[in-house]
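Key idea: predict the complex, not the pieces.
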Amino acid sequence: MSILEVANASFSYERQSENIFEDISFKVGQGEIFCLLGPNGCGKSTLLDNILGINHLNEGDIRVMGKNTRTLKNGQIARYIAYVPQSHERTFPYQVIDIVKMGRAAYTGRFSSPSAEDKEIAKEALDLVGLRHLRHRPYTQLSGGEGQLVMIARALAQKTPVIVMDEPTAHLDFKHEMVVMETIVKLVKTTNLTVVMATHFPNHTFYLENNGIKTTVALMHNKHFLEVGNPTRVLNEHNMRTLYNVNTKLMTCPLDTSTELKQLVPVSTLRGLNKEEWNADV
Amino acid sequence: MRKRIIYILLIIAPLLCVFASLFVGRYPLSLALVIKTLWGQIALVNYDIPDMYQTLVWDIRMPRAILGAMVGGCLAVSGASFQGLFRNPLVSSGILGVSSGAGFGAALAIILFHGNTSAVYIFAFAFALLAVLLSYLIGRVYNTTPTITLVLGGVVVSSIFSALISFAKYVADPYQQLPAIVFWLMGSLATARYHDILVAGVPMSIGIAGLLAIRWRVNVLSMGDREAHSLGVNLAVDKGIVIICASLATAGAVCVSGIIGWVGLVIPHICRMIVGNDNRVLIPASLSLGACFLVLVDNVGRIITGSEMPLGILTALIGGPFFVWLLKKTKGGGW
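Result:
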């Protein structure tokens, strides 16, 4: 059974204006990761906003665990779908544990505070991302990578079957990009979570696939999905050229006896370094 | 355990400040006299205390101190809540134009009704709420009220009412009305009586109670609209409750005390340094410290000069150095 189902979805910010995306359909099953890939401004984040209920589709439906999100109140959607933002602006130096406890808002009355049980759930969530020892630190003092793990912990505290992540490794350094990816793999494997993720790194999807997670990639292009499928099938030199106007080489090398490491290596943009063609449309 | 001690301190401190202020003023009173007067009033025992002292303690100093505590608490709590709601530490209780609206209402009443006290209260209160309503309507676009347009709405409304205050001063009679307007704008508790507490206490209490009740949600709202939404918050309702409560509290305070700056901006920050940023503790702490601060400052104002020094001047003169001292001592508390 699919956990999340998007059917014939179209959206524009205002009725008359041009659609951001049109007639998009896909399904994600439990324990799967669905990756949205596409150039800046192609509508990935807008599609995620619609899944989260921040915006509402003009046409089509979004179902989570069989329930149409149109019929759900915001507080109910938050019990099915959690959100990890691309970048979180830190204003007040809350303690890490207080940030994670906010994940319990959907289960806490408007005029009450999280209970002792909520606090335990928050601590468990911090355990899952390996940050329990930092729980009393002001989260404004954490590094970018740790901050992102706190956001993931907050989403976990929400205890939802689905987590939506918008470029969770943007702005992170070489190591922390890996830490966040490993955390996602670990979580999906141990908790059978379903993840919908927008990303700018095609190779991340190979990484997920190599670690034994059922990964589906959707290439978002001209308001539609250019192609949907597993990374090995979808991520090829031809599609990268269409999607990003970038020439790539698909490199493979054996990682160990059973797995083969695949990487898409960018070579050049279509216009290349040739000066005369700089003005030509890319 | 530590939490419990903090909460007990937060409750006791304002009571102590109010009690202490019964001794402060031009006529020094002995402890025995004050206690006898209080007990005489509460238990209806006659101790043969001269009427003058009776009046001084029970009818003048007591209501003044209580009102001061309530006003200080309201301004600080509204400021703390707005800082969270607008995710901006530079915001104060006047951000949506409450203070300038109240100022114009009071000035208008002073000109139209020659300073009739009830008229001043009613006009100040009504225009304070009108200003917030206008800010809200200006900030409302696409059926939602994003934080940034709400702040802009507040800025616009504040400056319009500030201009109107200037206009009122310009047309006011310079011998009677102008000084009255100027003094009102500088803030004072000198005329406080019990009926002020009863009248203004209603909106202040409603506002405070609401903000205390919803204080954890202010944490969540301070994550920003997008994240608060995805955490399951009904933005329109929760933001609305915070705005209405904070505005009621501030409008109730300002209409009886005049404009007292500083408390709504800096008391929350002093509390942030002491108890941290979690609004579950921050908001009660602001209530308590705001109350203490205003009562103490009012006492200082009664001591240092023969005539009364306006509160709005003293809050900044006393609070400023204290804030700097605390900033150095706590090294900013995580900022």
